[in-house]
Amino acid sequence: MANTKLKTFVNGFLRENPLLVLNIGLCSSLGVTTSIFNGLGMGVGMTFVLVMSEIVISIFRKLIPSAIRLPVFITVIAAFTTIVQLVLNAYVESLYNALGVFIPLIVVNCIIMGRVEAFASKNKVGDSILDGLGMGIGYTIVLVAISLIRELLGGGTLFAGTALKIDVLPEAYRIGIFNSAPGGFLVFGILAACLQAWKQYKQNKADEAEIAALKEADKPAEVEAPAAAAQPTEGGAQ
Hints:
238 residues; mainly alpha; two-stranded antiparallel ribbon; 8 helices; 2% strand
């Protein structure tokens, strides 16, 4: 049971990462990741909406008629998205202005709609919380990774927009393409390729281990075969 819950929680980290593996919710990952501050803020906000929506949908899953489940899902997601929007506008105005239209677009984020439909509407509250947290954390990790590369190479800084801002690269060494959409596509593609290469490496190692185990299991049979052939047959010469 504990292993099942742990598997549900970590599923979104790598095995079914919503961005690098499932390739959903890409608009925000390319649009807001020009700085670590923006990527982390978007990830935290999306995770909050995802977890709270999964909780509500899971609690009332048996009361929601199947014919109107999608409008109900959208209403729930929109309510929590509005909370995030109002809180950011009130307390973190710089992040609210930087994320812009991508905050209300959380309502139609494929990750949230996909998880409430595929998981929360069919599972208990505890499992839904673990699923939402795992998917949200996996989404946030990728956003921060993309943001780090783009901000460092494109802007030459780290943690821009915060009191921790660090100037790393002189302006002459900065690569402007990483501040634009093509730079976002490039970084995303490289990270996705690295993950696929790592998964293929793990699969190859597992296949090699399985083949070695099968060969090891066949060895005793090969040794016993000559001994069996040497036994005298009934009625044969002694």
